Amino acid sequence: MIKVGTLAKIRRLYFRDKQSIKEICRQTGMSRNTVRSWLRNPEMVEPKYPARVVVSKLDAYTETLSLWLKADSGRGKRERRTKGQMWQALCELGYTGSYGRVCAFARLWKIQEGLAAAKGAFIPLKFRQGEAFQFDWSTEYTFIGGIRRRVELAHTKLCASRAFWLVAYPGQGHEMLFEAHARAFEAFGGVPQRGIYDNMKTAVDQVLAGKKRKINARFEAMTGHYLFEPEFCNVASGWEKGIVEKNVRDRRTSIWHRAKDRRWADWAELNAWLAEQSKAAWAELNHPEYPAMKVADVLQDEQTQLMPVPRPFDGYVELLARVSSTSLIHLERNRLKPLRNLCKQLAFHSLCRQL
Question: Which domain holds residue 98?
Fold first, then answer.
């Protein structure tokens, strides 16, 4: 394909500088037949070429894929399908092409629709084995006991081996936070030297200047029990714990998308399934820094550098509660009767039945 500037150079060398065709071919690197064909034109004409027609196996499915991409652009981030899920859905419709062609079409569609976001550059963090873990929560939904419930999913991930552990809870209270750590350390076979968190309310009572934090007393007691040092990210700086942030996204598409539409009898059944899926992923996923090794292989090496796991931390929380004139205790938007008064009422009702 010859550009207009090249054609103009050929005409200048031949008509103005009186260069031979052989010399023009030497300077431009073009064949003699090409140079002669363009010099036969009496006038300077811009070269025109027919548009290249690329036939792809995806052509019959571009309209369907465009509709899917447009529908997902209006959904929340956690509700969108991945390119891999779209590729599998197209294969069920009869598509026999590659996954890469679907990704290329999706990238071009986002650029044309003005939805492509500019990417920033970040320096990847390096961690020694046994040095640190990262913790985060994600909010999901599934059916438990026949009711669609909101699930707070605890993600704990070792920074060196990339082994992760998932536990589902109905809330993000201290009791759930402490048990999530106990289960993760037991699964990992040890405790790292420090933990990296965002500024969650169960851990930080007040954010002070810089990296200073007023740490929750009960949370600090938990860190002292397991002997690891807590470290908190700057405000609105999720990339400082990007390993677990990426884990939230990856597990949402690789594990949770199979859990959200299933029916679970109770929380114990769901957590048993999540434990199986986490261990299975260790044996399937390649380590990002050592592609020849699986996550389970690197975890086996990292376990030698972890601190031993003590007994689980007692997750009780002491709170001062107000008791009303009708003997109701107001606690976390609930009104509870003290156990002593409840026993007295049960004894009174039992005595009335006997009479």
Answer: 59-113
Report the interhelical angle of 32-39 vs 21-28 (nearest 10°).
110
Is the C-alpha dihedral spanning 35, 37, 41, 44 positive or negative? negative
Does 257 share its domain with 350?
Answer: no
Whether residues 186 and 252 fall in one domain: yes
What confidence tens digit (pLDDT) does each residue in 271-304 have? Answer: 999 999 999 999 999 999 999 999 999 999 999 9
Residues 246 and 336 in one domain: no
Helix residue spans in 189-239 (DSSP H): 217-226
User: Judging by DSSP bridges, how do beta strands 334-336 and 132-144 pair with one another?
Assistant: unpaired
Residues 7-16: contacts with CB under 8 Å, at least 24 apart: 7/38, 7/44, 7/47, 8/44, 10/35, 10/38, 10/39, 11/38, 11/39, 11/44, 14/39
Position 318 in a domain: no
Please indicate, yes or no, whether residues 78 and 184 belong to a single structural domain of this protein: no
- The residue type found at 53 is V
pLDDT attached to residue 317: 67
- Enclosing H/E stretch for 259: helix 257-259
Judge if 47 and 82 occupy the same domain: no
- In the chain, which residues have pLDDT < 70? 1-2, 45, 116-124, 317-319, 331-333, 335-355
pLDDT at 54: 76
